[in-house]
Specification:
Number of strands: 2
Helix content: over 70%
Shape: globular
Strand order of the largest sheet: 1-2
């Protein structure tokens, strides 16, 4: 009880609250700009915390982290341009809602989902950290390989009208993920002698091209749209906000998405992108009217956002308990903890309970700030859609090029972004969905790397890999999910 009171006193400091609000604001801005990623923002911010007290430094970094993750969904909903990879799933239903004049509702359900998932995730962090971290420690290469295969079952949930085309798109994504050096032996593949490709295609670079440039190319295909007063010519920021009935109807989806986010986030190496698509795919699969999704369904936004946000506190479970970062962002936070003299590990839960409660309660307060920014600032943020397309899309194009260049200060990244923009435009023109392609790029390295490690440790005996209890259970769940998703896809096509 004393530790909780001390934590509350620390958080009640006006300077700490101001610092957290500044961090959230910076995170929202950074997250909404394509190319300026959450890990990049954290990496740049760490040096500025050198002279700060440990509590202030950690809370500032967490504020930037959570603000950036939510900020990526804002532009995904408003202009179909995810600021972060995790925002891509929110665009599937968020942007169609914006096109219908319901951007305010989409942003508000996104904010509410983020808050609901944060409460669930922090609760899991506080109550089940030691237990879930021990489960995560039992995961070896075979289990992560199985988890990657399980992730592919989501493809059917975001397939659209043609499951075959979705599988082809996912296969293209997996092929793209093989470009670069072999993860086990370092053999170059499809690099054509270019050292730029040695480390493979950067995920954020591909994301910017697929979702931002593709949308720009679509607009320039029909020059008349560029003279429209608003994006798509039919968007209004005067739509009604989320009502009580709609919010109540999304509670189940938010809770389920938050739970999926917790389970995925507690496993190192997964992250918000996989959780958001898993949550979205599960929502579509379990819906009585799956044909509504992808056309502007509030529960689609709720599922994607709650899945993404649910991972972020859960990703700190293995970090705080055993010092294992759950994703790139928590890896940077691990360095920040060490820099400020905070020893991460089992002893943290016994000897440093004050800093733990500051983190727990601080995350809840940060998510409250994010919620307020998304809810009450929605009408202000949505005004971006009233900018004439003739001005808006050139600005977005400049930001896309600048963002892709800023990733590694390399023009090569710009060319990669343009290439993926062309690829996305061509695929959409031929009816191939883009989310499965993105999933293939994300899951490909997880599947390949862990398969090679598992085969190496098993002496090349694949039976030994497939009969490991946890791995086998995950694979069986993946098969069940795929069968159910295929049935759902067929049902959607029949109803249409």
């Amino acid at each position: 009880m004393g530790s909780i009171l001390e934590a509350l006193q620390s958080l009640a400091d006006p300077s700490i609250i101001l610092l957290m609000m500044i961090g959230v604001s910076l995170g929202l801005i950074i997250g909404s700009l394509p190319g300026l990623t959450d890990p990049m923002a954290l990496g740049l911010a760490v040096p500025f915390t050198f002279g700060m007290e440990p509590v202030a430094a950690i809370l500032l970094l967490l504020a930037i982290h959570f603000g950036a993750l939510y900020g990526g969904s804002m532009t995904a909903i408003l202009i179909n341009t995810p600021g972060t990879p995790a925002g891509a799933a929110a665009a599937l239903d968020g942007f169609p809602l914006t096109q219908k004049g319901n951007s305010k509702k989409a942003l508000q359900v996104s904010a509410l989902s983020a808050l609901c998932a944060a409460v669930i995730s922090v609760g899991a962090l506080m109550l089940f950290a030691p237990l879930l971290a021990k489960v995560a420690l039992n995961f070896g290469p075979a289990e992560y390989f199985a988890l990657g295969i399980f992730g592919l079952s989501v493809v059917a949930g975001v397939a659209g009208k043609s499951l075959l085309k979705a599988l082809i798109a996912a296969a293209i994504g997996i092929f793209v993920s093989t470009i670069g050096a072999d993860p086990l032996f370092g053999v170059e593949r499809f690099t054509f002698g270019s050292y730029y490709l040695y480390e493979g295609i950067d995920l954020v670079t591909a994301l910017i091209g697929l979702f931002a440039l593709t949308e720009i190319f679509k607009r320039f295909q029909y020059p008349g749209q560029l003279s429209a007063n608003k994006l798509g010519g039919s968007i209004s920021n005067k739509g009604e906000g989320l009502n009580r009935k709609e919010a109540k109807g999304a509670v189940k989806t938010m809770s389920k998405g938050g739970g999926i986010g917790v389970l995925v986030g507690a496993l190192p190496g997964t992250g918000a992108v996989i959780a958001s698509f898993l949550s979205y795919g599960e929502e579509v699969r379990s819906s009585k009217r799956p044909e509504k999704y992808g056309k502007g369904e509030l529960n689609g936004v709720a599922a994607a956002e709650s899945g993404a946000i649910g991972t972020e506190s859960a990703a700190m479970i293995p970090l705080l308990t055993f010092g294992i970062p759950g994703d790139v962002a928590t890896a940077i936070l691990l360095g920040a903890f060490t820099l400020h003299g905070i020893q991460i590990g089992p002893d943290l839960f016994e000897g440093s309970t004050n800093i733990l409660f500051v983190i727990f309660l601080g995350i809840l307060l940060l998510e409250l700030f994010v919620f307020l920014a998304g809810w009450y600032g929605a009408s202000i943020i949505a005004k971006i859609v009233n900018v004439p397309n003739a001005y808006l899309f050139p600005i977005i194009t400049v930001l896309v090029v600048a963002g892709s260049f800023a990733l590694m200060t390399s023009m090569f990244n710009v060319w990669v972004t343009i290439s993926f923009g062309i690829l996305g435009f061509v695929m959409l023109a031929w009816g191939y969905p883009l989310p499965p392609l993105l999933l293939g790029i994300i899951l490909g390295p997880i599947i390949e790397h862990n398969y090679l490690l598992a085969m190496s440790s098993a002496g090349g005996n694949i039976v030994e890999i497939l009969t490991r209890p946890i791995a086998l259970g995950i694979l069986i769940l993946g098969v069940i999910m795929m069968i159910l998703s295929v049935r759902m896809n067929r049902k959607m096509n029949i109803q249409e």
